[in-house]
Amino acid sequence: QWYWSYEYSDFKNIEIDSYMIPTNELNKFNFRLLDVDNRISIPYNSQVRMLVTAADVLHSWTIPSLSVK
């Protein structure tokens, strides 16, 4: 149902689509309503610029390990 698209436009022209894993497909290591099929990787020890936009309504975008929601 929900999906997110990401671009690494400052480094390379990379685009990634990420879909939420349905509850019936989760394993014991996944987080319900948080885990996706393609996780993004954020560069370590670097400045990062995030531009967040939505074509409709922005739902449940989070980085649990950074306490960002």
TrEMBL record:
It is found in: Mitochondrion membrane. Its main location: mitochondrion. It is a multi-pass membrane protein. It holds the Pfam family COX2. GO terms for molecular function: copper ion binding; cytochrome-c oxidase activity. Keywords: Copper, Magnesium, Membrane, Mitochondrion. InterPro entries: CcO_II, CcO_II-like_C, Cupredoxin. The keyword Ubl conjugation does not apply. One of its GO terms (biological process) is ATP synthesis coupled electron transport. Its EC number is 7.1.1.9. Its cofactor is Cu cation. GO terms for cellular component: mitochondrial membrane. It is an enzyme of class 7 (translocase). Belongs to the cytochrome c oxidase subunit 2 family. This is cytochrome-c oxidase.
